[in-house]
Amino acid sequence: MSTEIRANTVLPARREQITLHTADGLQLIGELALPESRPPRATLICLHPLPTHGGMMDSHIYRKAAFRLPALADLAVLRFNTRGTASEAGRSEGSFDGGNAERFDVAAALEFAEFHDLPNVWLVGWSFGTDLTLVHGLDPLVEGAVLISPPLRWSTEEHLRAWAESGKPVHALIPEFDDYLRPDEARKRFAAIPQAEVTGFPDTKHLWVGKAEDALDAIVRTVAPDVPTPLPRTWDGPSETRQVTIVNS
């Protein structure tokens, strides 16, 4: 019997709590979700929205990615709390540094992925996480970047040029009614990266409330184009329902 995939539906995966170790001596709380019985096609490293405004590893798109994508798209999903950020899984050590010392957090996630031989690594940033991606994420291990609601707040022209010169794919998912950067302006700003693809999402706002499925479909189309989209909205097989407690950072 088919089960409708709802916000709190958890599909089968191998999930483990992980600790990332930064070069400046902090321990960061995280989780790795892997396909239950197959090797992953690709790996998502999720960089969350601004923790001073409620962003964390449980921010709803990332929570749903971890709950669904290992089963629906054979993807590995690595999500974690940047320094000083709390979620139901716990609080990472350190304190928020406005995107500066967070470079060590991004590096720690990449080092974890490399040490554990996770394949085809993509950075998926959302809001503040897109600036972390553009500023600190241009690493040889990274295949490319998916940017959800990028404000381009800390990312400079120099950072955009560096991504342009790398040739790595950049996919920007821009809400029609975003608070910071809307599709027409985004196309102008991302023209600095010739290979960047900018996709507008009608009737969508910065936080993607009610639109998570659109974001997940776009991510999968980018990192695993062999997987048919839209992804299934029902599931035949075992599943769980989990109520996540949202913790304020």
From TrEMBL:
<dbReference type="GO" id="GO:0016787">
    <property type="term" value="F:hydrolase activity"/>
</dbReference>
<dbReference type="InterPro" id="IPR029058">
    <property type="entry name" value="AB_hydrolase_fold"/>
</dbReference>
<keyword id="KW-0378">Hydrolase</keyword>
<protein>
    <submittedName>
        <fullName>Alpha/beta hydrolase</fullName>
    </submittedName>
</protein>
